[in-house]
Amino acid sequence: MAAVKINLQVKSAGLFSSPLNLVEVDSINATGVVTRLAKLITATVGSSVKLLDKTDFTDADDQALVLIKNTGATYDLFVEVTSGVEAIKLKPGQFAMFPWHTDNTTGNDLYVYASNATGTNVEATVIELT
């Protein structure tokens, strides 16, 4: 069983009329499979490729924590929740962490494409929370 500790801290002295200091700490115990992958994505807009498939899960109705990072140095990575619908844009070095729910009755696959046909590298980790 994998354990993930999440620390989120947001501070700002000039963004709002009052200083902002938000700290959240949580620990998540993975009760399911932890999947890690690294790929070179050369697909571009209009031809996205499936990064994560709902059938990769061991249970038909799972909740997961997903971490996706654009490890490339030059081009953007776009993430689509439904093929053809951009949901996230990651510049080189940026990452996103979000909850993801899979369901056998709908297409909950994650698709990606790069901003240039040369491609960009992506790393992803999926932690099942069954």
Overview of the molecule:
With about 130 residues, the chain is mainly β. It has one domain (about 30-130): Jelly Rolls. The protein contains no helices and 10 strands. The strands form 3 sheets. The chain has a 4-stranded antiparallel beta sheet, with no helix packed on it. A 4-stranded antiparallel beta sheet has the order 4-9-6-7, with no helix packed on it. Strands 1-2 form a two-stranded antiparallel ribbon. The chain is globular and about 45 Å long. The N and C termini lie close together (about 10 Å). About 20% of the residues are buried.
Features:
130 residues, mainly beta, four-stranded antiparallel sheet, globular
Main beta-sheet strand count, sense and barrel state:
4 strands, antiparallel
Taking all Cα atoms into account, the compactness measure Rg is 16 Å
Q: Extract low-pLDDT stretches.
A: none
Mean pLDDT across all residues, rounded?
Answer: 81
Number of domains: 1
Q: How many distinct beta strands? A: 10
- Per CATH, what is the topology? Jelly Rolls
Shape: globular
Distance between the termini: 12 Å
